[in-house]
Design brief:
388 residues; alpha/beta; Rossmann fold; Dehydroquinate synthase-like, alpha domain; 2 domains; six-stranded parallel beta sheet; two-stranded antiparallel sheet; binds 5,6-dihydroxy-NADP; binds zinc ion
Amino acid sequence: MRNFDYCNPTRVIFGRGETDRVGKECRKIGRKVLWVFGGESIKKNGIYQRVEARLREEELEVFQLGGVKPNPRIDKVREGVALCKKEGIELVLAVGGGSVLDTGKIIAAGTCYAGDPWDFYIDNSKITSKIPLVTVLTLAATGSEMNHNAVITNEETGEKLGAKNPVLYPTVSILDPENTYTVPRDQTVNGIADMMAHVFEQYFHPVPETPLQDRWAEGLMKTIIEYTPRVLENPTDYDGRAVIMWCGTMALNHLLEEAGGGGEWTCHPIEHELSAAYDIAHGAGLAIVFPQWMKYVLDVIPHKFAQFAERVWDIPREGRDDYSLGLAGIERTKQWFQQIGAPVTLKEVGIGPERLEEMAERAVKRGKIGVTKVLGKEEVLEILKMSL
Ligand code: NZQ
Ligand code: ZN
């Protein structure tokens, strides 16, 4: 196990009805609020009206910034930063999924920075402080509600990049599972594929002797597998939504990786090129790429894939060596993605061979990726071709 220094400062308020605390939580921090949200979903399901009423009760001065798109853009961040600076905003409130939360994070950090917020994506160390950030999560997927990442797209440069910095942890996050009842089936599936992928990125690593971290990861994967049918069959199953929501948070609040474990983070940069070039859902891209990456690195850590097959999928060894047992686990993973309705080939999301080379090149533009196998352009291209 590796040495570590782990601190997660986000206060999480979890449970039915907790959305109503948003006004008081904001008021504890300040009076002038920039409220960031996405499209029409929160107006249709009533979250907007509910949050608005709670903010009004506390007599907060609220400025609104709606219209954050999935795969959020730097232009929207710039608009928010300008508003915060002009109006002397004291805190950001982000109500939505990962796209809205990530936008809120970079607005909050950009408000304390003299230059252009895209600079953060060239050099993460330029993020040095932020104004406080309160979030109300409406979609279980990214873990953004309790982590220090923010992924933003720059349409001018065609890049979709992640910034990481401990400054970006939200101050307070309200996780009310009922807010996810209206998430459509395809987005629910994308979110579940994303959280599974987060666990994969932090499970298939070559760091030796991480038994506790492995069991945490396996517990998360088994729980996600067990509860997925419940939320797909009954979108208003409170306990189903609650379990999936907390799994999504735990899958990427850095506990698995930063508290002595390991991290791979190869399929994420590859997927970000797919969603940057084709604007597909992040979770969908991961469901396509991950089983192929798994096959590609199986020979380096076959024992880990065998452990995964036995412990997560309950596949009996039946005399097989690690490699063939691991392969059975990978096949089972792909079948599971298919079963829950996720795409498993690029063709299914309308991506052909035309731009694979360009995407492979971009994925390694800032250096080779991966740990188990270090991947350059040619290796990424091979994985993308396997994904066709
Ligand atoms: O725009 P609205 O109308 O709000 O609709 C959204 C959007 O169309 C809808 N939605 C959200 N909550 C809903 C709802 N619809 C009905 N009922 C609700 N309660 O869902 C759609 C997708 O929303 P989005 O926020 O884009 O989804 P997600 O949470 O999956 O976030 C994806 C983004 O996060 C990045 C991804 O790359 C992508 O840009 N990621 C962020 C990470 C992080 N910060 O740690 C890590 C991830 O690996 C990921 O890269
Ligand atoms: Zn992800």
